[in-house]
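[09:14] KT: can someone run the structure on this one? pasting the chain below
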Amino acid sequence: MARAIRTLILSNMPDTDIKRARFRILDPTLNTEGADCPVCTQRVQYYRRSIYNKMARCLIVLYHLNRRDTSQYHHINDITKGVTDSSGDFAKFLYWGLIEQKPKDDSDKKKKTSGFWRITEKGKRFVRGEVRVWKQAIVFNSKCYGFVTKDDQADSLTIQQALGADFNYSELMQVA
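[09:31] RB: done, structure tokens below
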């Protein structure tokens, strides 16, 4: 089905090398190993991003912070404190719709982002074990282009699976 749609799109595009190359490179089902852009020579590769245990633990911390005040955003340092030294992967929860970022003040030219986050309703449901999310997001240039979705059970995960066998979910969920 997907191949038929791509064929239909290509057959209706003006016959230019640039448009065909762009379509081939930006389609994650066609560009699975990465490629060099024939126009600008930049390396173009999709990456599969997963939720791992330190990310899951940070989401649980944010869940607890937001239980006290559901409208408040929290700084990344407060979320990752005691869990991880690296905060870069936390923002990847955006791909799954589990967190939202506070908009940055446009007058502040020194910062790329606000650094403040809050958990979404879907994120709360994930932390409570009420929903599963896809294991792997397909990402290019910091944008999610979809998820690996061959088999609902095999390709999705719960918060407990993200935490792994070494963590006690009940203990992490206790109110401090």
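[09:33] KT: thanks! The CA atoms of residues 134 and 156 lie 4 Å apart.
[09:34] RB: yep, looked fine to me
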